[in-house]
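Hi C.,

You asked whether I'd gotten around to modeling the 540-residue construct. I have! Everything is below, sequence then structure, no commentary in between.
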Amino acid sequence: MNRLAVLLAHRMRRDRVQLALWIVGTAALALMATTAVADTFGDRAERESILRLTILAPAILVFRGTPNGADEGEFTTFLILAFLALLAGLMSTFLAVRHTRGDEEQGRAELVEATPAGRTLPTAATVVHGMLANALLGIAVALAFAMSGLPVDGSAVAGAALAATGLAFFAIGLVAAQVFRTSRGANGFSVAIVLGAYLVRGLGDALGTASEDGLTRTAAWPSWLSPIGWAQRTEPFAANDLAPLLLSVGVAALLVGLVFAFQSARDSGASILPDAQGRAHAGPLLGSAIGLAWRLNAGAILAWAVGATVFGVLATTMSPLVDEIGSDAPAIAETLRRFAGETASFEEAFVTTFFTMVGILTAAAALQAVMRARLEEAHGTAEPVLAAPVARERWLGGYAAVATIAAAVVVGLSAVGAVVGAQSTDDPGATTELALRAAVAQLPAALVYLGAVLLLFVLAPRLVIPLGWALLALGAFFGVFGELLGIPEWMHELSPFAHVPVPVGGDVDWTGGTWLLAIAVGLVAASVVGMRRRELVTEG
């Protein structure tokens, strides 16, 4: 027991900052969502009209949740519960892989296994650590809901639903760490499962059956395939049914048992899936630093581009509903115009809002390309490249070029999706032109994030990954949701997304975009020049 306590304390100490950010940030989002509902949709009649619109546009449910009523608590969970469950899943899978496959990759696991702790006790400590982290997350979110004035029983059920969902995904992350040879592969698979569960749940919600009054919707069978769907089945603030969470707990227990079985059968550092055999000879693409950078990032770029394409299609296919939404839910129209500008039409505000989400995905794709350079440096695989006649600034410039290409690919495919979706509208030409303008306008903000993270990579390489994602999250929150939640104007202006050019009446004011591009060029140039004098930092 003392050995288990020591290992558990070690994990808690390593994760004290990351877990605090995840838990506090998720709880803060829950609190702000409930406050925003009370301020923006305080009228029950208005909430009812919004819920009835989901019958006309069930695709909205893919990004929201299952309607269970028009009371404040029920409406809040409709808006935010699925997204909170998504965050719980990502936190849990990253946590699981970090302390299993990640430690094996870095050689830490082998050192611990050489002590009296053996091979099984570290995994047991990781399981306990994951359970405690998700319990804290559930408690924090329940307190956030209750502090905003929502019923305590519904708040507790919502918190329990998130904790159980996180636990199920934590077990999935543990299994992925046994199956894949690298932490990158395990994390990639786990994130795909979490996002897939979110989309499957959304599909089940969209295919569900609405009640006669249009205020509730019974999800279809695909929702039962997703832990996030099980969380929604608890119906916080309505039915408060904890029974569906037995599925999450049961799956977690089964998978954890499977993990211990795998752990006892495989060698340390090995994996269930064998390493793929590489080609005997490298292709011409790998003959340059930029070609290698592209090869390492191509899969991730494709994943971000697929997500952006979906947003592009939805931005234009849903635009025929904007007039009805604007008349039936004036609060939505007012909020979107506040985001896009008072002179913007509701359709312009609607499309711009969707493409701002594309901008976030574009920035994420660029950031991940730079962070891949950091992983190559930390793992020591950048050294053989730099031992060849490749200068440091040229090496980093290759990753910067790939990140720029990634941003262009993501924006370009989102525009293709928008053009396809626009063919279903009454005026395809006008809708296509609006979407293309909104798509191109996202590039300056994404390039600012690219420059900022490149500079972080040069000045503080050990912090570039957590700080880079934190900068994007804060920028997205302040720039996209700040206007919706009523944060101070100066905080909203700190985000690059607050200065993205907005198409209004066929014109686009590129003043903000020009400044963003100038800032981005300056940051990238400073980063490449600064790389000349920086030594490699191979520690993680």
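If it helps when you're writing up: DSSP finds 22 helices and four strands in the chain.

Thanks,
B.
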